[in-house]
Amino acid sequence: MGSTSAFNRRDLVKRAAALGIVAVPAMGVLSACAGGGSDSDNKVEKGKKSAKNPLAVNETAGLDVVIFDGGFGDKYAKDAQSEYLKAFPKADGKVKLSSTQKIQSTLQPRFNGGNPPDLVDNSGAEQMDFGTLVAKDQLTDLSTLLDAPSVDDPNKKVRDTLRPGVVEMGQFGGKETWILYYAYTVYGVWYSKGNLKKLDAEYPETWDEMLALCAKAKKKGVAGWTYPGKYPYYLPFSLYPFIAKIGGAEVLRKIDNLEPNAWKDPAVKAAFDAYYELYKKGYVLKGSPGLDHLQSQKAWAEGKALFIPNGSWVENESAKQIAQNPQFDLAVGAPSSLSDSDKMPYGTIWASGGEPYIVPRKARNAEGGMELLRIMLSKKSAQNFIRQVSSLTSLNGGTEGLKLPPGLASAQVALEKAGQNIVNPRLQDWYVALQKERIGVGALGEMMAGRLTPDEAIKKIQKYADDTRDDSSVKKYKR
């Protein structure tokens, strides 16, 4: 699919941050606790800690890295590898970087055998399930990396150079950080400034303006919205921050924590009613319930609908269609304000890390794996990534001097406008089946197709959430 998504939404249909959703169950990987023996077995000796080597990397040790070979490719990682070898020339010839689309099946034997790689980009259709990896103690706590000095400014810790929410995304209810998300995705309502201009309109900052614009477009034979009805778990990309804007971020926190009656909050009902009105008034592109992600994006990019809930990977994924309209001018909008009583200001948006990197607990050279990540979070490596794949990174800023494509530039502006009003729901990371199949397909998709009312959808979702909370086989997380 060639996308720039954060939790690899280019494979969203196949897997379940948001951003990224389908995670292949990793029980085979974790059925044995990685080969027996102590954690120190086969570990390389640490090197000498210094200002230039704050993680005490063994300068002569080998490094084994496995990258997901998806829409981002692996060149950005190979370029960072070259920087690693400049810092540790004695490791030349001992650094191995391989890429694959089959992360789980490639790495399962190595995890079970106790000889996993030193660094893994755990992404794609065969992504290993993070909840299981954490629960089975298969990962290294990355706090050492986060507390190390950054490459660009030794007076700043790595954690202090990251965008809001990135560190928290890698945590599972404790202080340890198990995952470092490298890419950064902005979710919201994506649209063409050029297509709005044809209607003598700008992006609607209130819901009343949204409905009025959809009515105006309908008279011109253009739909207001479309979405991938076959995969309706795209709808939350704009719906969840809409809920937070109306009722406050606390509503999403209660939903993530599976609290009783969290879905019965008035903000949820108000947001569902608003989206259902799009269906009732005929403002949704006919046939949307039967479209997949690519079909809905194609229809939208061709101007058949004004708005689509999506993530910033859509710029790459729809590049061919967008290029056919030189005046397209891609942009992302935050959820429109429902009323003056909304708890959060206009500009509130969902943005979060993607392309998740892990250092296995049994890695031979964990320090080397973390050092490569530290290098990747330098301004030089981050800008290289942005230029190559048209995606932001988790490094806060880092775009100075770069000419960004329209969608990415718009996403950057949206982040600046949002400031601290950035939400990061965790449901899709923590409870894959609940988010994708039950809430997405089982309720939101049914509501937007007119087969459930908002009240019926909410009742159904609350039961799904309750069932998940009461299922002792599902590990629970809190924020």
What does this structure look like?
Helix content is 39%, strand content 12%. The chain is α/β, with parallel strands linked by helices. It has two domains: 6-185 and 351-415, D-Maltodextrin-Binding Protein, domain 2 (3-Layer(aba) Sandwich); 187-350, D-Maltodextrin-Binding Protein, domain 2, CATH 3.40.190. Strands 1, 2, 3, 4, 5, 6, 7, 8, 9 and 10 form a ten-stranded mixed sheet that branches. α2 (75-87) runs antiparallel to α16. Mean pLDDT is 90; it is low at 1-29 and 31-37.
Set out the fold topology.
Blueprint: H1 27-30, E1 63-68, H2 75-87, E2 95-100, H3 103-113, E3 119-121, H4 130-135, H5 143-146, H6 166-169, E4 180-192, H7 193-198, H8 207-219, E5 223-225, H9 236-247, H10 249-256, H11 266-280, H12 293-301, E6 305-311, H13 314-317, H14 319-323, E7 330-333, E8 349-358, H15 366-376, H16 379-389, E9 392-393, H17 406-418, E10 422-423, H18 427-430, H19 432-448, H20 454-470
Parallel strand pairs: 1-2, 1-3, 5-6, 8-10
Antiparallel strand pairs: 3-8, 4-6, 4-7, 4-8, 4-9
Helix pairs in contact: 2-15, 2-16, 9-10, 9-11, 19-20
| CATH class membership of the largest domain | Alpha Beta
Which runs of at least 5 residues are low in confidence (pLDDT < 50)?
Answer: 1-29, 31-37
**Quick one: CATH superfamily of the largest domain?**
Periplasmic binding protein-like II
Strand content: 5-15%
* N- and C-termini, Cα separation: 33 Å
Separate helix tally: 20
Question: What is the SS-derived class?
Answer: alpha/beta
CATH architecture of the largest domain: 3-Layer(aba) Sandwich
Shape verdict: globular
Beta-strand segment tally: 10
Major β-sheet profile? 10 strands, mixed
Q: Output mean pLDDT.
A: 90
Helix-strand sequence: HEHEHEHHHEHHEHHHHEHHEEHHEHEHHH
Alpha carbon gyration radius? 22 Å
